[in-house]
Amino acid sequence: RVVQRHTAVVGKIDRQTPILNSKITNLNLNPYWHAPVSIVRKDIIPLMQKSPDYLTKNDIHIFAPDGSEIPPESINWNSDDATRYLFRQNPGKNNAMSSVKINFPNPHAVYMHDTPQQSLFSKLMRFESSGCVRVQNVRDLVVWLARDEGGWDRQTIEKIIAARTRQDIDLKNPVPVYFTYISAWATDPSVVQFRDDIYHRDGSELLAMNDLSTTAYRSGEQVQTQAPAEDQPY
Question: pLDDT digits over 84-143, tens only?
Fold first, then answer.
């Protein structure tokens, strides 16, 4: 039974959201955002080269391995020096995850979360993230996930978010989560839906049909093949 439907924003073509199977174990309200090394290298370093006050404006702080805070001006932004440090964004309106982070163990270090960029949900093509999944109306999902945890009703969750208070909710009964990739499906016996193969994951194997004239697809290319007749040598 479907209890909720949510529009999502997923990974860019070069930062694809992975296929996975896991269980949601933990929710973070007003989370810190820790920038992975890939984002430090691909995004933060170029942004700091253009706008040296980018980190300050977005309330992002830099920490050394010993936990001490590092001033941005002490880093050589024309090198990979920054990748040696931890980048942490404080909770708040500019936080990349906004109000909520939904955690589940996986080898890709991805998760579901809120976003301050709500306008992205109105776009037809929503491949905008670095691999994580941004969920529209995510607080509805959080309330449903925490429904069996005592004391976590909608009013309590909204109050904590409004106060910008950091709070974690551990789920006693982890909830299964599946990320899959589908570019064609049937909605009823007479209707088939097709979508663009944005990640180029379709056609990885040659499709063969037992017909006189077979159309096979590999890597998005159409190839006409001729099936052998019964009286022809193989």
Answer: 999 999 998 889 999 999 999 999 999 999 999 999 999 999 999 999 999 999 999 999
And the tokens for 102?
């939904």
CA 157 to chain centre: 23
Q: Are 140 and 7 in contact (CB under 8 A)?
A: no
Residue type, 6: H
Give bridge partners of residue 20 from the DSSP assignment. Answer: 179
DSSP letters, 15-45, are: SPPPPEEEEEEEEEES--EEE-HHHIIIIIH
Residue 29: strand pairing partners? 100, 167
178-220 pLDDT, tens digit per residue, is 999 989 999 888 899 999 999 988 875 533 344 433 333 333 3
Please report where in the chains the tokens 């017909």 appear, as a residue. 211
Residue type, 170: D
